[in-house]
Write a structure and sequence with these properties.
By secondary structure, the chain is of the alpha+beta class. Strand 1 and strand 2 form a beta hairpin.
Length: 437
């Protein structure tokens, strides 16, 4: 098998995981591991080595991952190794790599027997192609989202959704999500493997709450999925930078860059990435599947599941800015955005999009609405701007806003009609530097 296609486990360590000083002696061809005979070593990394093996009777080929001897004495690493297998088998989904068996070699090194995947990771594909076309990216992402929604339903949070952990099989194009080594099982009764305040995952796709060492739920995976979408569309992670401290700062404070500025991408997809990567978990899409629905609507310009199209809505965009590098002013910006959001909600506007510098609220225009709906929008915008300025209480913070009436696509939701797309959800198409007071 070519070296660039050795993706059978893709269970590499987090960026800060220890790497053994010396490499373990490789298992020789013919070594029996459980019911399997080793054929050859096909990969190795910071946590262990991966071997191609074959069942001694059924001749089924599998991948066998063996933990490094230097880590086999660590209760934490061994426990994670075991819980990865337990988590995967708890979910059992066609878009998640299957794990068949767990055991230990005579020298004490743990091993797991898993599905052999013939394909390339998204990371490898991007290195070859640079980026994917939007429809290709969504085809891959939809399968990852299906795996994540099933995982979350089973109480398992992946916590490391990244391009090197997504394998595209050949020639089928089926997608497998791999490496649940740092997954969190929400309702597990065993001892916690991650202390409070400890970060796990990969910095490039890490949600703000993970960076801050707070407990992560499924919305952290939604954040990473948004980062993966941006990476597939552009070929680069949203906050790519050589300085880890700067990457952290951008995750915590900066809005994700717009993919449409560097690649031929529909601007509406920028809004999808921005919502998926919202700093506050509650502002993100509630599920991975909801992200996919929004991305498809943005790509096609319509939502097949919409309960109605051509409805009108009033949108209010509030933008808050401050001098770059002024940490004190950034606190005032956050307070201003929170106040604007609360004022919009009080006026009956639902938040569609939030970034580190703006919030977009929208309200459907009633079918029989008269012109006074426009007046209501202007009044609500004025109240939101006043609330933002009052909360900021800082002359260095600049608050501006824009009101727009445009088409919205809606669908039936648990609380009634929900805006899922349309021009009103894409402020790049209509926002102007207009101040409303």
């Amino acid at each position: 098998m070519p070296a660039e296609r050795k993706t059978e486990s893709q269970s590499g360590p987090p960026d800060d995981a220890p790497v053994p000083a010396t490499e373990d002696a490789a298992l020789a061809p013919g070594t029996q591991v459980g019911e399997y005979l080793v054929k050859e070593r096909i990969g190795h990394g910071g946590h262990g080595a991966v071997y191609l093996a074959e069942h001694r009777i059924l001749r089924r080929r599998v991948a066998v991952k063996v933990l490094h001897a230097s880590l086999a004495g660590s209760h934490q690493f061994v426990s994670r190794f075991v819980r990865e297998g337990q988590a995967v088998n708890r979910i059992r989904h066609p878009n998640i790599v299957d794990i068949f068996d767990l055991g230990a070699l005579p020298d004490g090194r743990p091993y797991c027997v898993m599905e052999l995947l013939d394909g390339r990771t998204v990371a490898q594909i991007l290195r070859i192609r640079g980026r994917l076309e939007p429809d290709e990216a969504l085809e891959v992402l939809a399968q990852v989202a299906a795996a994540l929604d099933a995982s979350h339903a089973a109480g398992v949070i992946h916590r490391d959704v990244k391009a090197s952990n997504v394998v595209v099989l050949e020639p089928s194009g089926a997608v497998k999500l791999v490496d649940f080594g740092v997954a969190r099982v929400v309702d597990e009764s065993g001892p916690a493997l991650t202390a409070v305040g400890t970060r796990v995952g990969t910095l490039g796709v890490m949600a703000p709450e993970q960076i801050l060492g707070r407990p992560a739920d499924g919305l952290a995976d939604v954040y990473a999925l948004g980062a993966l979408l941006h990476q597939m569309l552009t070929g680069a992670l949203p906050f790519a930078c050589d300085d880890p401290a700067e990457v952290e700062r951008r995750h915590l404070e900066a809005p994700p860059p717009r993919a449409s500025e560097v690649a031929p991408v529909a601007p509406a997809l920028d809004a999808v990435v921005a919502r998926a990567m919202a700093k506050k978990p509650a502002s993100r899409y509630p599920t991975a599947g909801a992200l996919i629905e929004a991305a498809r609507a943005a790509l096609t310009g319509r939502d097949p599941a919409a309960a109605g199209a051509g409805r009108e809505a009033i949108g209010i965009l509030v933008v808050v800015a401050c001098p770059a590098g002024d940490d004190a002013a950034l606190v005032a910006v956050a307070a201003a955005l929170d106040a604007a959001e609360a004022a919009l909600q009080e006026a009956g506007f639902v938040k569609l999009l939030a970034t580190a510098a703006s919030v977009l609220g929208a309200r459907l225009v009633p079918e029989a609405a008269a012109a006074d709906e426009n007046a209501h929008g202007l009044a609500a915008a004025g109240a939101a701007l006043d609330a933002a300025r009052s909360a900021a209480a800082d002359p260095r913070v600049e608050v501006s806003g824009c009101v727009h009436r445009a088409a919205a696509e809606v669908r039936a939701g648990p609380g009634g009609e929900e805006i899922v797309g349309g021009e009103i959800a894409d402020p790049d198409r209509w926002a102007r530097p207009l101040r409303v007071s």
